[in-house]
Amino acid sequence: MRIKLTQEIKCGPDTCSVGEEYEAVLILPRSTTVEFEVQSGRKVRAFNYEYTKVEVEADA
Predict the structure, then answer these.
(1) What's the confidence (pLDDT) of residue 12?
(2) Domain of 26?
(3) Which of 3, 19, 23, 24 could hold 51 in an S-S bridge, CB 3.0 to 4.6 Å?
């Protein structure tokens, strides 16, 4: 799923800013916490109040 951050997330030396989009996966099937990878290769988790789901348009 594609997400867009609504809050800044600081994880070690990496900072993910508001408005950035990432490909993410749910941690558990019934969870709303997602995990995504930043450019440095570090995996970061975001809670449901830190992101919104982005609707991806299908190619015609």
Answers:
(1) 76
(2) 2-54
(3) 3
Cα-Cα-Cα-Cα dihedral sign, residues 1, 39, 7, 10 = positive
The CATH number assigned to the domain holding 38 equals 2.30.30
8-state DSSP, 35: E
- How many domains is the chain partitioned into structurally? 1
Q: What is the pLDDT of residues 29-55, one digit of tens each?
A: 889 999 999 988 999 999 999 999 998
pTM, rounded to two decimals:
0.82
Identify the CA nearest to 27 among candidates 58, 10, 54, 51.
51
